[in-house]
Design a protein that fits this description.
By secondary structure, this protein is α/β, with parallel strands linked by helices. The chain contains 7 helices and 28 strands. InterPro entries: MoaB/Mog-like_dom_sf, MoaB/Mog_dom, MoCF_biosynth_CS, MoeA-like, MoeA_C_domain_IV, MoeA_C_domain_IV_sf, MoeA_linker/N, MoeA_linker/N_sf.
Length: 411
């Protein structure tokens, strides 16, 4: 087992952790599409039909034969006979011939014979039954061809894709009412510490309510997992070992908070080292807050030991729980991390050699977004609750200067 305080850089720690995870084998279930929103596709989805299924207009205007408009201009318009109107939701029962035009609306079906649409802005009513066309159009202009968006049998969505609102809409456009999705991986969450009590209990002097089980449960849900809380372990080794084993047997991964400090009461690393191969991979990360974090893989199941301080647990949990759950669900991770660029309002000191994360609040002025650091102690959860995001101070930096443009990562 790696010696504690032999600190690992955050990127290297994550790389080591992820490299020891076996290929994902997520459980599957079939759900109605709307109920599956936000879930991850478990299998590829193929198009059942062409989209669109008919030639349709992208603008309001007049459907024409393109050759009939050649040479048209503001100074030398072409006059065409209007032979009908393409009604929305219906197939036109007339044809458009040379020198003829038909009123059409955005999304409307082109009549037989028409192969282009002149935008309404480039036309003018001449007299009853006649339109003045002031601009030429080419074949296919302002028209979507059948299958231009999707062709029958085409791969629409790959397994691992999240069902975003756009994806839900796309599936509905194909008449696909049900999809096979990944069941959320079960993430066991165990708090420890003789001083920790249930949140609904009035703490006695020296006791604190269990914050971490609930904040981490919310984090797990946000990233697509199913949190399963296993209560609060005492600091007795037999109690923690039994609860940790029960959680690991019942779940796909385990997160333990507290018990990861460099003290004689440190039990987490010892217990995880006993729970399967390869065991503890990282014990101590060059990061603040969260230095005593533990990363392990026990017989194919990931386990994370987080500090007991609520802010430390949540900040470090965001960095490692998210990629862990993404891996367990087989989710594609090509989506960039969401962040906002802002100017730092004040100097933010840091210790070189550690990657440091600061919570910030955001406000705007006439020049754009401003990030205001929230200086805190790691056990003050509302310091983080008041924040809009986090900024990162790199390992080799001694801090950030006021006015510097920073990236604010959303919580």
């Amino acid at each position: 087992m790696p010696e504690f305080l032999k600190l690992t850089a955050p990127d290297e720690a994550l790389k080591r952790f992820m490299s020891h995870l076996p290929a994902a084998q997520p459980r599957r279930e079939t759900l109605p599409v709307l109920e599956a929103a936000g879930r991850v596709l478990a299998s590829d989805v193929y198009a059942l039909e062409a989209l669109p299924s008919f030639r349709r207009s992208t603008v309001d205007g007049f459907a024409v034969q393109a050759s009939s408009t050649f040479g048209a201009s503001d100074s030398l318009p072409i006059y065409m006979n209007v032979v009908g109107e393409s009604q929305m939701g219906a197939e036109p029962n007339f044809k458009v011939g040379k020198g003829q035009a038909a009123v059409i609306h955005t999304g409307g079906m082109l009549p037989e014979g028409a192969n282009a649409v002149v935008m309404m802005e480039y036309t003018q009513e001449a007299r009853a039954g006649e339109v003045e066309v002031q601009r030429a159009v080419s074949v296919g202009e302002n028209v979507i061809e059948p299958g231009e968006d999707v062709k029958p049998g085409e791969l629409l969505l790959e397994a691992g894709k999240e069902l975003s609102p756009a994806v839900v809409g796309g599936l509905m456009s194909q008449g696909i009412a049900e999809v096979e999705v990944v069941k959320p991986p079960r993430i066991g969450i165990l708090s420890s510490g003789d001083e920790v009590v249930d949140p609904l209990q009035v703490p006695l002097p020296g006791q604190v309510r269990d914050v971490n089980s609930y904040s981490l449960s919310a984090l797990v849900q946000r990233f697509g997992g199913e949190p399963v809380r296993f209560g609060i372990s005492s600091d007795r080794e037999e109690d923690m070992r039994a609860r940790a084993r029960s959680a690991m047997d019942a779940c796909d991964a385990l997160v333990i908070t507290a018990g990861s400090s460099a003290s004689v009461r440190d039990l987490t690393a010892r217990i995880l080292a006993e729970m399967g191969e390869p065991g503890v991979l990282v014990h101590g990360i060059r990061i603040r807050p969260g230095k005593p974090t533990i990363l392990a893989v026990c017989d194919g199941k990931p386990a994370i030991g987080l500090p007991g301080n609520p802010v430390s647990a949540l900040v470090v949990g965001s960095l490692f729980i998210k990629p862990m759950i993404y891996h367990l669900t087989g989710r594609k991770t090509t989506v960039p991390v969401a962040y906002l660029q802002a100017r730092l309002s004040t100097n933010t000191p840091s210790q070189a050699g550690k990657e440091e994360w600061f919570p910030v609040s955001l406000r705007q002025d006439e020049r754009g977004w401003i990030a205001e650091p929230i200086f805190y102690k790691s056990n003050l959860i509302f310091a983080l609750a008041k924040a809009d995001g986090l900024i990162r101070v790199p390992l080799d930096a001694n801090g950030l200067e006021a006015g510097q443009v920073v990236e604010v990562y959303f919580l």
